Amino acid sequence: MSTKRTAHIISHTHWDREWYLPYEKHHVRLVKLVDTLLDKMDLDPNYRSFFLDGQTIILEDYLQVRPDQKDRLTKFIQDGRILIGPWYILQDAFLTSGEANVRNMQIGHQDAKKYGDVSKIGYFPDTFGLVGQTPQLMQQSGITNALFGRGVKPTGFNNTVSDGDYESSFSELLWEGPDGSQVLGILFANWYSNGNEIPVDREEAKAYWERKLADAEKYASTGELLFMNGCDHQPVQLDLPEAIQAARELYPDTNFVHSNFIDYLQAVQRSLKHELSTVKGELRSQRTDGWSTLVNTASARVYLKQMNQLGQAMLEKVAEPLAAFAHVLEVGEKYPHHLFTYAWKTLMQNHPHDSICGCSVDEVHREMVTRFEKSRHVAESIVDDSKRAIAEVIDTSSFAQAGEGALPVVVFNTSGWERTGVVSIELDALRLYFRDGYTLEEASSFAKAADLSGRTLVDAMGNDVACTFEDLGLQFGYDLPDDKFRQPYMCRRVKLTFEAEKVPALGLKTYAWVKRDEEIVDSSLLVGDRVLENESLKIEIADNGSFTLTDKKNGRTYRDLGVYENTGDIGNEYMYKQPDGETPLTTNGLAAHIRVLKDTAYQAAIEIVHDWEIPGSADELLEEEQRDLIYYPHRKAQRSARMVPMQIRTIVSLSRGGKGVEIESSFNNQAKDHRLRMLFSSDLNSQVHRVDSMFEIPQRDNTPTAEWENPSNTQHQQAFIDVSEAEAGLVVANLGLNEYEVLRDGRNTIAVTLLRAVGELGDWGLFPTPEAQCLGEHTVRMTIIPYNGEGEQYGAYEQAYQFQIPWTLCQTGIHSGRIAPTYAPIRWEGEKMAFSSMKMNEGTGDLLLRWYNMSSQNTELKLNSNIPLYTFYKSTIMEVHGPSIEANAGGQVSLPTGPSEIVTIGIQR
């Protein structure tokens, strides 16, 4: 009898490391599961294959407890029975950076190769939506497929499916990225548990397969049907061989196979006869009713997103480029690959979709805070070592003539563009080491008596630089030399704040604090006590604390910026739900306390304080509805009549060279079950907007699709959102505020979520999460950047990206050196190109630099080196040596770059 169809049964477990249980409780269950799997494979050769959820961290977690099982585990991997990789962890796509996803793939491959072959499977079983650049990232990783459960209609859960108006004709589709890269997409249309717990009993199996085969055939384009034998934390089905044999006997016209993804994908490719639908760009479930997109995980536990933004920036945008800088200068600092791997792994352990999304129990997120701190501390240690090593080879000798007792300061710009901005450093004006015979009393007395008057800051040309000096007084400090015991000292410490101007991209600029008689004539950016103004911008503060921003380049004025909005939230960590009929509270009619906070030649700031009252929580009905497991869209709870104070302190600041206005908001949240946003009315005429995502700035519609029923249309962002029309645009950049909405209010108001406070996890049961109410102190930061219409937005994006990156400063001494006081090892130019990373390759020792084209047009990348390098070549995100790139007579290389292309260049010494 000829076989009409094949049932590919793939055994797996989807392993959320932490979620409704703390990590270690899931960890214990993981150890039991893998022990059981190894025993089963030892005893039963008919149990052919198991997919270890696409993440190699499972190997680490298991072997941490069972190191004695490594050889046994390795054997089954090398025999092809346990499939591992390609990722280190299964991450959330929209809340983790592009470079974090690249490191995830790189480290996953590195770890998998230690055991055997890497599974070239683009595995995204439960990712909460997928970014548009995924096909290009897969292709550059040598992966030609993507298997996913969310983002495209039809989708389902627990073997239920949507009906009608599908985005794809079949569960197999072509997924195309903005650069044109395509992969074969496999949608888990009946979820990744559609072959779970297969019965052995013939009567039960008959009913099971009657339903399951029909469900799979409903969407499949071929007779190769996929059945996922597993689910979240699913134990191994030990009687699966017997269940498969029972199915074979019941359905002799169907070939039941204990399969794996490699065999399944090959079978699908061989069998494709229908023309598949092509789905393009982001997969965000926009063709659904909007109630189950899980989008509001972008605002659950905002403090985690803020810590993640800083942690990612410190690794990829500060520590890696500085360590690479030090390495190529050959200043004795070897690139610390081992420390980077450890720091990245520690950070990425917070990147799974139930972790960074903030949708787990409280114990999980407490542990995440520690991991964020651990990773950042490693990054900071690398930065400290690298910056000091580089500073030692800067020629600072010219500062000896600039004034008495010169104290040089190095400003590092690790962004990809030339940068101007306000920086601060704590400087030791005098150090007295105990090793030199000083008693504590003597050292303290001398340090206190030091004369710090008559000093100013100068650049390498001897020009005065406006600077604010704050005496921090007597301080204790210590050195930790590499070759001797710790060296404690007492010092007189000062804080210098100034505007560092035109610091070269990926480079440095040196200043010195010197004793001079000249005084800098004070100037101000204040016009009265409520107006800030520089060459580019004018900001006017209104009585209610909102402000008007005028772009002096085109005369466009933006009004009613910085209004706060507060609403109730009776949803959960996954999804926001405003109480029915509620009118949002705003600060529009609330008089604010306004005063000048700072007035210097390089920066001015105004403080705005709102003394507000908001409801203290939801009413008592919410707790009852939670206990009764009422699906959150159907809840009827309202806000409590009890009011609590919420004082919000806002600092609006403008620097002399600033292209945007910076906002810092601080508040002590003592309310529950609510959402706080800041509103920026753009009054720009557009039906679409742009938003920063992974290696891409996609365009999204302001109005959702016809199927969308949720009144809220909040969405994910990373660094910024941009609303524009032909002659003007407004970019709102943020630090770790990943949720926004373009309101359908006739003004295209940009709403950025600052806080969302809820009391339960949500999903499949009742899991109280009191710490998700986020009670206590919070501080958020944003910058608002106007620009002059189409074609000018890339300059605004450059400013928004720089806002993400901390400045790095270092004190050094007077000494000769081999690099100039203003220096950069690399120079590049490329219209519409965004710089992404600079790091070293562990295997080859090559320098790797990455950019991406922010636009949908062709462009060109040009690159020069100021260090002795030999050859340039085009690489991939996996740092594979590709075609050589010839340099011209001046040492410059030029590389044509396609629309939305991610470009990696290797430099071989």
Please tell me about this protein's structure.
With 909 residues, the protein is α+β, with helices and mostly antiparallel strands. It has 14 helices and 47 strands. The strands form 10 sheets. Strands 20, 21, 22, 23, 24, 29, 32, 35 and 36 form a 9-stranded antiparallel β-sheet that branches. Strands 25-26-27-28-37-34-33-30-31 form a 9-stranded antiparallel β-sheet, covered by helices on one side. Strands 13, 15, 16, 19, 38 and 39 form a 6-stranded antiparallel β-sheet that branches. Helix 9 packs antiparallel against helix 10 and helix 10 runs antiparallel to helix 11. It is globular and about 100 Å long. The model is unreliable at 155-163 (pLDDT under 50).
List the helices and strands and how they pair.
Layout lengths: L4 E7 L11 H21 L6 E2 L5 H9 L4 H9 L3 E2 L14 H16 L9 E2 L9 H7 L4 E4 L7 E2 L2 E2 L10 E5 L5 E6 L14 H18 L4 E6 L10 H11 L3 E5 L2 H11 L6 E3 L21 H27 L8 H12 L13 H30 L12 E10 L5 E15 L6 H10 L5 E5 L4 E2 L1 E13 L7 E17 L3 E9 L15 E3 L3 E5 L5 E5 L4 E13 L16 E2 L6 E7 L3 E13 L4 H8 L15 E13 L5 E9 L4 E7 L7 E4 L7 E3 L13 E2 L3 E6 L2 E7 L4 E4 L7 E8 L18 E12 L5 H11 L4 E4 L10 E2 L2 E4 L3 E8 L6 E7 L5 E7 L5 E5 L8 E2 L7 E5 L4 E7 L1
Parallel strand pairs: 1-10, 1-11, 2-3, 4-5, 5-9, 8-12
Antiparallel strand pairs: 6-7, 8-9, 13-19, 13-38, 14-18, 15-16, 15-19, 17-18, 19-39, 20-21, 21-22, 22-23, 23-24, 23-29, 25-26, 26-27, 27-28, 28-37, 29-36, 30-31, 30-33, 32-35, 33-34, 34-37, 35-36, 40-43, 41-42, 42-47, 43-46, 44-45, 44-47
Helix pairs in contact: 1-2, 4-10, 6-7, 9-10, 9-11, 10-11
